Amino acid sequence: MTYIALFISVIFGYAVALLFKKKELTQLPILLAFSGAFLLATTLFELLPEVFEGPSEHIGLFIMIGILLQIVLDFFSKGAEHGHVHLHSETKTFPLLLFLSLSLHAIIEGVPLTENTAMLYGVIVHKIPITIILALFFSKAGYRQSTTLIFLILFALMTPLGSYLMETLPIMTTYSNEINAVAIGIFLHVSTTILFESSKNHSFNLSKMVAVCIAVVIAYFI
């Protein structure tokens, strides 16, 4: 069910993008802010305490590695993980660098989900607006629908792949605490970037603030 839910979240995001591709999705920034706050809250409430239950001498180092890794991935994805896509391709060929960076991000974020339902919800809520933004970008940039579909289907498989590898590879089980710490670093970078960038010119927006507060409350009680 975990694999199916993760895959469906991307399909759902694509369906929403198809439905609204000729309209202006004015509520998308609010949805993005909600997803960022929800992902951040579930990371702090659920995943962060878990990694410190075991030997934690080097956990901070691995969290920092995750943050730095996401900064590197942002260089290649141009910030697609937190809602920004800036590609320049005259030939409209398959965006390989974007796919590879998003895939590595997605595989790592799938690792902590095997035994953590709250984090599963957090990643699903994060994936929906990101998929909407990706699909809308591909459509407006003039990419063929087949290219968009192939990209999104492969992207949808990456997070379930991360969960599957965690369940089947003994080496990943052995170092699960360290890998989860790297995932925490990635989640912290992505979610805080979404929150910082969700308000234009860093101005106060009541609706986004309400969305953030609701996301935190829901994450606390699930």
The proportion of strand residues reads under 5%
Summing up helix and strand content along with how strands pair, one would put the structural category as mainly alpha
Which shape, going by the Cα principal axes?
A: globular
The average pLDDT value, as a whole number, equals 86
Low-confidence stretches: none
Count up the helices.
9
Task: Count every beta strand, where a strand is a DSSP E run of 2 or more residues.
Answer: 0
- The tally of structural domains comes to 1
Distance between the termini: 18 Å
Oligomer: single chain
Binned, the helix content reads over 70%
Largest sheet: none
The radius of gyration over CA amounts to 17 Å
Polypeptide structure, described:
The chain is an all-alpha fold. The protein contains 9 helices and no strands. Helix 1 packs parallel to helix 5 and helix 1 packs antiparallel against helix 6. The chain starts with a helix and ends with a helix.
Short description:
With 222 residues, the chain is mostly helical.
Task: Write the SSE topology.
Layout: H1 2-20, H2 28-51, H3 59-77, H4 96-110, H5 117-140, H6 145-168, H7 170-174, H8 176-197, H9 206-221
Short descriptors:
222 residues, 76% helix, 0% strand, globular
